[in-house]
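Aim 2 progress update. The chain analyzed this quarter is reproduced below.
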Amino acid sequence: MNNLKISQRPAHRIATILAVSALALGLSACGKKEEPTVGQRLDSAVEKTEQAAAEARAKAESAMENAQTKVEQGAANAESSAKDAANKGMVFLSDAEITAQISASLAKDPDLSAVKIDVDTANGRVTLKGPAPSAVARERAEGIAKAVNGVSSVNNQLVVSAS
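Predicted structure tokens:
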């Protein structure tokens, strides 16, 4: 019987060693992270590239919109500046034209043509000075002045003469 115990012991030891080894291998395998496959790495790289391309496209579109807005603003400012410059250059001519048109219209009126009415125009604002034969003629002179294009206001300083 003694022989049986000796022969079972080495087998038992071998089984124990195998079990412990299997357990150790199993535990060490649990601690390892599984490396991604080549396909998984390729998919990840493609996804990151597509994401970067979408972000770059969004930034480019935003930059284009900002540039377009700035160009439009610059064009509007240039147009406004050109109009301002043209208007400033034409103010003198426009005032002179206004004065001439009012004077010509007053000369055509039978009641107002006989009297001397001074017409002064500055930036579209007209001042009428001098005598008027009647209150009706005074008001008609103001209406004639207001009817001319470019007139923004009329300061009627005509004085009705007592005749």
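Residues 19 and 119 are 121 Å apart (CA to CA). The first strand starts at residue 118 and ends at 122. These observations will guide the mutagenesis experiments scheduled for the next reporting period.
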